[in-house]
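User: Once you have settled down, look closely at the record that follows, taking as long as you need, and be ready to discuss the fold:
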Amino acid sequence: MSRIKKGRFSRLTGLGKIGARAATTAVLGRGAHQKLAQAMVRELGAMKGLPMKVGQLFSYMDGLVPEAHRDVYLEALAALRAHAPAVDNEGVLALLEEELGGSRHELFERFDDVPISSASIGQVYAARFEGEEVCVKVQYPDIKDATVDDLANVDAIKGLAKLFARGIDVDSIIDNFKARLFEEFDYEREADMQRHFATIYADDPDILVPAVIDPRTTPRVLTTARLSGTMLEAYLPTASSRDRDRFGLALFRFAFGSLIQHRLFHADPHPGNLMFGAGDNQLGILDYGCVQPFTDEEADGIAQILFAAAEGRSLKDPLIDGLGIEADDATLDELATVTALTLRPVSEAQPYTFTPQFSSEIAARVTEAKLRLSARILTRRSYFGLDADGFTFIVRNLFGLAHIWGQLGSTADFRDALLRMRDAPGADDAPSPPPPRPGG
C-alpha cells in the first residue's frame, strides 16, 4: 500500500497528469471523459489533503464538471467521498498505537486492520470498544507536510480546477478550503464540536450525531460510535417518498437550525457525511472537523434575510441591515433578485419540492452574479464581503445542500420549518459551543 506523496514537485506531478489529460479531453468523446474521471479518482485519492477535498467538491457541487458528461463524473468521483484508495496502512496503524500508547488489539476488544474508508486527512477503521461497535479515524502520518506542499502548489490546484469549472469562481472556493484545512488536523477540536452537536440534537427524533468515545480519542485519533445506515447513492433506489421528504426536512432543520438557533454551521455537507436510516431510522450526520461558529450579530444578519424571504418581504433592507451591504439601488435590486432565487424553497408556495435543476440553476446564477457584482458592492462588515471567507463558506455549502435535496427530491413545508426556528429556544437557551483550543 503506497504512502502519501510528499514534496512540492512530487505532488505537482500528480496534478500535472490530470491537467494534461483534461486539456485534451474537452474535444474528445464520452470514453475520454470516463478515463479522465477515473484518473482523477486515482491521483487525487492517492494524494489526499487539499487535492482530494477539491475532488470531493467536484463530486457533488453542480457547475464544476462538463454538463454534457455530468453523470460520468458524479458516478466516478463519488468514490472520493467513501471509497478512495487507502494509503500507508502500516504507517497509519503505527501512528494509532503511538497516539493511544499501546497495542490496538489490547486497547480494543476487536480491531479490524483493513480500513473501511479513506478520507482526505485520515483513514477509518472498524473496531469494538466496551461492547459497542465504533469507528476509529486515524490521521495520515505525513498529511501535514503534504498540506504545506499543497499550499505552495495552490495556484496549480486552482489552474486544474479551472480547466473544468469555466466561469466558476474556483479561487474563492479553494481559498476557503485552504483557510480551514489546518483546523481539521486537530481531532480533539473536532471531538469537542461533535459532542456539542450531539447535545443539541440528543432528543431529535430524526437527527442522530454519533457519540465520541473519549478514552480512545487524541489530537490525531478520533473514535466515535459506529452508525448503521446507508449512504445517499445506495439509499436512493429503494427509498420511500415519505422517508425522502422526512430526511430532506431533517437536513434542512439541521443546517439552518444550527446556524439560527445555535450560531454554528456544519461546513462539510457532502453526501459521504450522511447516513440514511441510521439508529432509529434517523439521518446520521458525520464529520465535525469543519464547523464555523458565528457571532450573534452575524447569525442574526443571515436570519433576517431568510425570514424576510419566507414572509414575502423585500430583501433589500435585510441585505443592508443584516449584512451591511452598501450599493446603489440598481445593484441592490439585482443582488436581492439573485438572493430571492436561492431562497425559493422558503418563499414559494408550500409544500416545496427540490429538484436537481434547482441546484444547477442556483450554482450558475449565483456564481455569475458574484463575479459581476463583487466590484460594485461594499460591506461595512468585511466578514460578509462578497469575496470574504464567510460568504464563500455559506454559498459553497448552500450549493452542496441543494444538490443533496435535489437528489432526494424532498417535498416539505420548508417555510414553516424555518419560521419555527425564530420562535424555538435559541442560542441563549442552549449550551455554549466549545471554546477554541490553545493554538487553534
Notes: The radius of gyration is 21 Å. Residues 378-391 have pLDDT under 50 and may be disordered. The longest helix spans residues 241-262.
